[in-house]
Amino acid sequence: MEPRLDYLYGQNVDGIVENSEPWDWGIELASGSIIHNTDKRRTSQPGIIVGYTFVSYEEGETDVHLLFSMYRGPEEEPDEQTVTMTKNQMQIYDPAISDKPRQNEEEQDE
To answer: Structure pTM?
Structure first.
């Protein structure tokens, strides 16, 4: 079984993983899963999304748009944030099904 974004729906963001290079970052979810950026041109890390819930994603021709939502209460609309990653330059790590980060299918095929 390969890690897939839709398997991660409903999880809260626990943090942003930062490494030594500005492009080397990831979004850590409550399960320990990480959506990892590998695009050296995408150095902008996500804004404030810790505590938000990963609710869906949308694939474009070259990008993947990750949608995160924060419930604000019954009287208010949820706050939504979108994080964009390059489609074939991201890795999904899910400790429940793999012991190391794996590249998405498009990158493996190249």
So the answer is: 0.85
